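Might I ask for a little of your time on a matter of protein folding? Here, with my thanks, is the record as I have it:
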Amino acid sequence: MAGGLSAGDALLEAKILDAVRLCEKTYQPRFAGFLDEREAGIAQRAARREGFSRFLLWGGHEDAERVMFGAFPDYYGDPEPSEFPLCAVTVRYRACDSLTHRDFLGSFLAAGITRASLGDILVGEGRSVVFVREEIADFLLGQISKIGRVGVKLSRGAEEPLPQGRGFQHISAVIASSRLDCAVAACCGLSREKAASLINSGAVLLCHEEILSASAPVAEGDKLSVRGKGRYVVDRVGPPTKKGRLSFQARKYL
């Protein structure tokens, strides 16, 4: 391993740096992924070490667990999700047919589709939505007629609301401040001291990045991952209560 990275992580970092350098050389957006949460953190750190900040992580919907990395040139203005080469594919089947995330993933991989070409798979009753790289969408539409033993029909696009996928557990609490240790304590049902210990040990990711400061600020829309505890989306921080504390709402991925 070089620089503390595994061979796989070093290859990912090289791909991210290639995307950044090609973006700067050609003045065109460049993309990599899909990436899981840990890989997204590696991508962000690699880009920032290169002194590059014009990137965006996007997976096709606001709560995406798997995301693509997009590097954008200076003239582009604010990076836009619409620029990403991904699309949603809707899979329909009888509501009485029970399919799981594993069923979908197994069928796609068996068809020769790589994991990096697949984003989130949101499984619902009679309708599921999968986010894929644009380049494989037509292949999916032409090749996939069954998931496991269940007959399915595929079409481009997805209607709102999206299937919930794994679903969420809602969390409500009152916290002392918008510090990371307060948010982790509320999400995980821990004391602030225990939460701070987890943060200091590198067990907490904030928006895909390892954060070692318990005082780091947390904002609405931020994503938290706590090793051994779960993954969370922060929905609300505030307003202040009469005693000066903050109401706090989050969701835990199930």
In short: The chain has three domains: 7-83, 86-156, 168-253.
